[in-house]
């Protein structure tokens, strides 16, 4: 079991170690602050993943009480309707009988929809909470991408002349490689934090959103690895 489920504690420990490495290499950098924010989201995910597993007892009691009231009301209406139908069945025409049965069927369908809506209420509350957290993780992934956006290896390879609008590029090739490597690690950990919401919550919508976050982080990491490949080429390492 220890190797079948992601451990939120291990993810948080890894994030703490990553932030320490970033602080040591790039003191007071924005990337370190982003890693700290991700650590907080991982802590929230640890708590939320446990809460999502637990039933909402008060809500379940209220739902089943409402369903019981529906059933009692439906039985009462059925008894009253059956008594009146017993007296009018001999005189009612067939088309009118069809209309009565159709109306009764529609009422049963509506009641069934209402019951299903109430039964799925708890799942929808948990789903909404998970989707809100996954949206935050998706935003953090884009923030990490913004941090690596101006880390262009072309400036190292071709020694492009700086312009007045050029971003500050004071990192050496080795530092740039390490910075981009930290970004890929953080993107990978974002996917792992997202997976915490789905590994014990069997919901297709949440699972689909988790997959979207993982696809996004993998796509962003691929762009960074293309830069790292250039920097680690013989031309790049020679700088």
Features:
79% helix; 2 domains; single chain; Glutathione S-transferase Yfyf (Class Pi), Chain A, domain 2; mainly alpha; 9 helices; 239 residues
What does it look like?
Helix 1 (8-25) packs antiparallel against helix 7, helix 2 (30-53) packs parallel to helix 7 (173-196) and helix 3 runs antiparallel to helix 4. The mean pLDDT is 80. By secondary structure, this protein is mostly helical. The protein has helices at residues 8-25, 30-53, 57-88, 94-119, 121-149, 154-158, 173-196, 204-231, 234-237. The protein starts with 7 loop residues before the first helix and ends with a helix. The longest helix has 32 residues, at 57-88. The chain has two domains: 9-54 and 123-237, Glutathione S-transferase Yfyf (Class Pi), Chain A, domain 2 (Up-down Bundle); 57-121.
Structural class: mainly alpha
Contiguous low-pLDDT stretches (5 residues minimum) are none
Identify the quaternary structure here: single chain
User: What is the share of helical residues?
Assistant: over 70%
Number of helices: 9
* N-end to C-end Cα span: 48 Å
């Amino acid at each position: 079991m220890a190797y079948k489920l992601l451990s939120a504690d291990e993810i948080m420990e890894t994030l703490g170690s990553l932030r320490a490495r970033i602080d040591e290499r790039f003191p007071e950098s924005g990337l370190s602050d982003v890693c700290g924010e991700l650590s907080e989201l991982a802590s929230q995910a640890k708590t939320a993943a446990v809460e999502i597993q637990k039933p909402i007892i008060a809500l379940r009691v209220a739902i089943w009480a409402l369903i019981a009231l529906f059933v009692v009301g439906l039985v009462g209406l059925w008894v009253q309707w059956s008594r009146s139908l017993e007296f009018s069945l001999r005189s009612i025409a067939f088309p009118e009988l069809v209309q009565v049965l159709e109306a009764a069927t529609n009422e049963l369908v509506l009641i069934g929809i209402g019951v299903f809506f109430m039964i799925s209420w708890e799942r929808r509350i948990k789903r909404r909470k998970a989707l809100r957290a996954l949206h935050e993780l998706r935003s953090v992934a884009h923030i990490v991408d913004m941090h690596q956006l101006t880390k262009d290896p072309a400036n190292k390879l071709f020694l492009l002349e700086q312009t007045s609008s050029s971003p500050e590029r004071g990192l050496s090739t080795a530092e740039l490689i390490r910075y981009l490597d930290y970004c890929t690690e953080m993107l990978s950990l974002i996917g792992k934090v997202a997976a915490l919401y789905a590994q014990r919550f069997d919901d297709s919508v949440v699972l689909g959103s988790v997959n979207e976050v993982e696809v996004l982080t993998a796509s962003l990491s691929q762009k960074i690895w293309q830069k790292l490949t250039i920097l680690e080429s013989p031309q790049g390492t020679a700088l």
